[in-house]
Amino acid sequence: MRAPPLERRARRVLPNDAAVARHDAAVYDLRRRRDAAAARVPDWEALREHARALKHYSLDHLDTLLLRFEKRALAAGADVHWAIDAAALCDIVGGLLEERGVHRVVKSKSMLTEECALNPSLARRGIEVVDTDLGERIVQLAGEPPSHIIVPAIHKSRAEIGALFHEKMGTPAGETDPERLTRLARRNLRQHFLQAEAGITGANFAIAETGSLVVVTNEGNADLGMSLPPLHVACLGIEKLIPTLEDLPTLLRLLARSATGQAQSAYTSLVTGPRPGGSLHIVLVDNGRSRLLADPTHRASLACIRCGACLNTCPVYRRAGGHSYAPPIPGPIGAVLAPARGAGPESDALPLASSLCGSCSAVCPVKIDLHEQLLAWRGEAPQMGLGEGTAIRLAALVLRHPTLYRRAGRWLRRAWPLLSRRWPGNPVSGWLRGRELPAHPGPSFEERMRQRGSSQ
Amino acid sequence: MRVALFVPCYVDQLAPDTAMATLRVLESVGCEVHYDPEQTCCGQPFLNLGALRETRGLAERHAARFRGFDAVVSPSASCVATIRAHYPKLGLSGMLPARTFELGEFLVRKLGRTQLGARFPRRVAILQSCHGVRTLGLARASELGPAGKARAGPGTTEQLLNQVTGLRLVTPERADECCGFGGAFSLKLPEVSARVGRARLTALQECGAEVVTGTDTSCLLHLEGLRRRLGFGPEPVGLAEILASGIDP
Hints:
The complex is a heterodimer of chains A (about 450) and B (about 250). The relative contact order of chain A is 0.13. With about 450 residues, chain A is an alpha/beta fold. Chain A is built from 24 helices and 10 strands. Chain A has 3 domains: about 5-30 and about 300-380, no CATH class; about 40-285, NagB/RpiA/CoA transferase-like (Rossmann fold, 3-Layer(aba) Sandwich), CATH 3.40.50; about 395-455, no CATH class. The radius of gyration of chain A is 25 Å and the shape is globular. The relative contact order of chain B is 0.16. Chain B is globular, with a radius of gyration of 17 Å. Chains A and B meet through helix 1, helix 2, helix 3, helix 15 and helix 18 of A and helix 1, helix 2, helix 3, helix 4 and helix 8 of B.
């Protein structure tokens, strides 16, 4: 049987043990920072509960919130577009840019545009998109998808980034100092900012009451993209809506702390209408979200605020790396969202790629029951490549009948020497890949109890 | 107290010593222990694979066999977690989910016993099994933040080990990180599972543990398999076996 896709891709990563260890340490450091930040907030757990309730309220009232948001955003002078799916988003944005003769665009980090493959779509129209988030720029130059939703290039070492910059931007060879590399990238990006005819951003939240967008970054790149070029296009999923400005602090208190351990991100910008002389187009994207909203088991996954905390705590993500999942979102939340998108058997098998340790659910700032969601998907996608329907049914049959069960147990223990060797078709070959069988256990507990009973 | 001994199928077959020790510990604290030799499996492996029909069949069988006891006690936190957290979702309500306990949980929280007269002069680390910590709440998960005035004390396993004569408790880095077992996960994604497990084994080794113990026999078997392959790491010993070490068989 073919191994699940995450295992297959991870097997290409795992042999480089030093890189795996470096990735694990770098990502776990974010979890440590998050823990420290959470510990400084009295009633952190109550804050999470409050945020969960707020996001669920927003999802429950999404229809009215969306219409209110549209009304207020229009009143503030923005244009509002509705995109039912990825293709519609690409058409709307592509059309807007083409109408205005835009050829150069700066874009700040937006997982939604990754999800909808906006960059390649615009490239086909001859529009150059430069990602301006540093990590995103690195993976763009490398021609790779992001491997993390907050730190997209966390899988790359300093040396790799130095070599990439040297090749693509002509920076000095052998430069590996992060500060100097950042300064070089910044200088390069400034040119793109000044030349861009439009800026594309995502949004972390959208406030229905005021028609405002909330954009959170650490690099200020979104702010430049929104304020330098004459046209600002903001693309966001419909699940980003929250009712009022007063609801925002709850989520902001959780977002940066959960993501990086910062009390607040360096830049938090509220955008209400276009800047003077400019124009603002807001594209609200469904792309499967309303279908998920109608699914009682999995709608909670729409509450995600994309902080990345579940990735940082995940023992599987930290070892397998983001590229072992299905783009654009890796880790537990990615494995929960992938089958919801119905992207095919590869992503349907992702819910199996978890030990179900539950740490993801415990760090989630909006308390998504991620590991329960993963388990539920396993039940809903029995076609997810297990390929063992018959074996499962047979095992269950044996376990329903104590006589059969005991006999099977005796065979298992008798075959122990054979099972402990690798041979084609060994039913425990999965176990033996990386482990030995434990020592022979001797008679079963049931057999020992029977002996004890007869000797008394 | 009428207590049923719940010996999960894999413990029966692969770790009978742990089951034996569980029985001895329960008898030593004065429980009237019943063992039903017709018990097999609670359904966890099938739940884990998403095979809900098979899970329900086995769960119904398990629930029927364990009806009517004051408590059902098992040396496998993940099986207990299956019953506690998932039986109600499968429509099997009744008293069983609330009356099924992991051994240490039962001793500390139900009986209020931590001192059992055990003697185990080794350096021991706890493998905090995820189901035990996050589903059963046997210790407070390290990622949880402040929750008002509630203060987290030591978990049940730690409370019990603290009372064992001669035992020195040592703590690994990332004290409650997953060992990478995860049931079906360990068989379907063995290289990822083994890589996670190796990191746990390394941390356990580095904290100076001679023995690693825990509430979930399956995680300990996974570590034992890794240790035999890799040639390092502390020896896995079930919590029941440590607690039974002062009791005459």
